[in-house]
Specification:
The chain is an alpha+beta fold. The protein has twelve helices and 14 strands. The strands form three sheets. The chain has a seven-stranded antiparallel sheet with strand order 1-4-6-7-14-9-12, sandwiched between helices. It is elongated and about 75 Å long. The N terminus is likely disordered. InterPro entries: AraC-bd_2, AraC_XylS_family_regulators, Homeodomain-like_sf, HTH-like, HTH_AraC, Tscrpt_reg_AraC-type_HTH.
Length: 330
């Protein structure tokens, strides 16, 4: 049975928790013979393909969903469940998202990447759609979940993987700020001005990064922040206004500390940014059958001034962009 969204403009209460009046999936709208299949299909549609195994005795479930730019926010409430994302589910469909879950109610066991975590109300947890995971609740539960596209994260895959299935207590560190933010978005997402959505999504990206930095960098080892900074630079090369201050802010570190991190490798932040831009432009210019004008190549990689681009390119590679493009290929 396909997904059906039921618009109920009246706030309702279930298990004592208010449910916002957004378009909702609700098992109460279906007779028992159809309820389980409807629920399983709808949960997969709203999250990711996975095995949905509710308690056989009684099934009650509701999902509210909304979007902020490319980020999906979902609130799911139901009776006892087991959810499992298997290899065949990943092959069936993978949006490549990193989920951030806030447990509002209940108790839940989560397994991923060889780790097991037990969540209690107020706890936060990250899990990844690209690899198998398993959830088991011990009774009624409510999750608030943010599904953020992984390609938006300026974080190496190895560091993302290190953070899955680990509990972040909402009274500690970055999680203390992130839990209220998720709750606030869940309450007011439907009122969000479309012009503010990209800014909100950017704030969520920064909070994800800060949360992972807390987990990976409890000893404040500089290599973690340096990895975050380099990844952020590479993902934002096309922004001609990108500055060291922007990089520091995205990584939640001071500008002076950012400069010290790059100095340990004998480079500057601006030098690293320039080198990555020039290397990217070089790859485009020598690519077979790549006939895009040189000016557009330069603009794409954050170097819109033709004279400046020619000068720094020749200083780096010994030839101008035009000379490189005209040179015979082996």
């Amino acid at each position: 049975m396909g997904q059906q969204l039921v618009l109920d403009p009246r706030p309702r209460l279930a298990h004592g928790w208010p449910m916002p009046a957004w378009p909702q999936i609700d098992t109460a709208n279906f007779p028992w013979p159809d309820r389980v299949e409807y629920w399983r299909t709808s949960v997969c549609d709203q999250f990711v393909p996975l095995a949905v195994n509710p308690d056989a005795v009684e099934l009650r479930g509701r999902v509210a969903g909304w979007e902020i730019a490319e980020t999906r926010l979902r609130r799911i409430r139901a009776t006892r469940h087991m959810f499992e994302r298997r290899a065949r589910d990943i092959r069936a469909g993978d949006p490549e998202v990193l989920h951030l879950l806030l447990l509002d109610h209940g108790r839940t066991l989560v397994e991923q990447d060889g780790r097991t975590a037990t969540l209690t109300p107020g706890d936060l947890l990250l899990y990844d759609s690209t690899r198998p995971f398993r959830f088991e609740t011990d009774g009624d539960f409510q999750f608030t979940i943010c599904l953020l596209p992984k390609r938006l994260l300026p974080v190496p895959e190895s560091l993302q993987r290190n953070c899955t299935a680990r509990v972040f207590k909402s009274e500690d560190g970055v999680a203390a700020a992130l839990a209220p933010l998720l709750t606030a978005l869940a309450r007011r997402a439907s009122d969000t001005d479309p012009s503010q959505q990209l800014a909100l999504q950017h704030a969520m990206v920064n909070m994800y990064v800060a949360l992972m930095a807390d987990e990976n960098d409890s000893g404040h080892h500089p290599s973690v922040h340096l990895s975050f900074a380099k990844s952020f630079v590479v993902r934002n090369l096309g922004n001609p206004k990108l500055s060291p201050s922007d990089v520091a802010a995205a990584c939640n570190i001071s500008l002076s500390y950012l400069h010290r991190l790059f100095a340990t490798e004998g480079i500057t932040v601006a030098g690293y940014l320039r080198e990555q831009r020039l290397q990217a432009a070089y790859r485009d210019l020598v690519a077979p059958s790549f006939a895009e004008p040189i000016s557009r190549v330069a603009e794409r990689w954050g170097l819109p001034d033709p004279a400046h681009f020619n000068r720094v390119f020749k200083n780096r590679f010994g030839v101008t962009p035009g000379e490189l493009r005209r040179a015979p290929r082996p």
